[in-house]
Amino acid sequence: MTLALYGHPFSSYTWKALIALYASETAFAFRMLDPDHAENATFVGEAHPAGKFPVLTDGGVTVIEATAIIEYLAAHRPGPAPLIPVDSGIAAAARMLDRVFDNYVMGNMQRVVNAYIADRDNPDPGEVDSGREGLRRAYRWLEHWLSANVLTPHVSLVTCAAAPSLFYADWVERIPDDCPRLAALRAELLALPAVSRCVEEARPYRAYFPPGAPDRD
Ligand SMILES: N[C@@H](CCC(=O)N[C@@H](CS)C(=O)NCC(=O)O)C(=O)O
């Protein structure tokens, strides 16, 4: 049965699922969420408790939440990518990092983005400052973790979470010079074929990045 993924090419959480699908060389139909496909938005609105995407369908099975989608693909559509490490201790570390990237990198990046969505010309300075400070704190934590640990091989759950969150977070708050390991990880991730494919597919939508997309990447 053919898989279908509902999402948008510019959406960071859609990337998270797309990177896993591309790296595991899994065939799927992409169901675009845009004004030309209202039926897809209707489906997502009913499938997810908050109407959020991505959403994966596999015949009669519907899977929501990007991390759960990757867990589902690892279990039901295993491919060349080691999405979930076999060793349970390494898998626990991968799941821990997945939460760090989602909650503290993606979360703080979205806090700033949401302030600009609410008011593009006068974003709430408290929200913008808190989001940026949260990003700097997350960057320092990740730099420290990377100095003491080895990352699971690509493309894993960690790759899928780290690539979109670092890609967009760096646009909001540049990874500082005193976090060289994290900056190198971002560059390494963007060079992976599954990730660079997402970067290129999202390129036409950059003008819509609420705080303004920088002229790089
Ligand atoms: N916890 C969700 C977050 C998904 C999410 O925030 N998706 C964004 C797109 S990147 C979204 O659906 N935005 C539209 C909305 O919130 O209505 C996941 O991991 O899948």
Topology readout:
Layout: E1 3-7, H1 12-23, E2 28-32, H2 38-47, E3 55-58, E4 61-64, H3 66-76, H4 88-118, H5 125-148, H6 157-172, H7 180-190, H8 193-202
Parallel strand pairs: 1-2
Antiparallel strand pairs: 1-3, 3-4
Helix pairs in contact: 1-3, 1-6, 1-8, 4-5, 4-6
This protein binds glutathione.
What do these coordinates show?
The chain is an alpha+beta fold. It is 58% helix and 8% strand. The chain has eight helices and four strands; from the N terminus they run βαβαββαααααα. The protein has helices spanning 12-23, 38-47, 66-76, 88-118, 125-148, 157-172, 180-190, 193-202, and strands spanning 3-7, 28-32, 55-58, 61-64. It has a four-stranded mixed sheet with strand order 2-1-3-4, with helices on both faces. Strand 1, helix 1 (12-23) and strand 2 form a beta-alpha-beta unit. It is globular. It starts with a strand and ends in a 15-residue tail after the last helix. The relative contact order is 0.16. The mean pLDDT is 97.
Provide the β-strand percentage band: 5-15%
Structural class: alpha+beta
Shape descriptor: globular
List the total number of helices.
8
- Major beta sheet, strand line-up: 2-1-3-4
Helix fraction, binned, reads 55-70%
What does the largest sheet look like? 4 strands, mixed
For the residues shown, what is the average pLDDT?
Answer: 97
Number of strands: 4
Radius of gyration: 17 Å
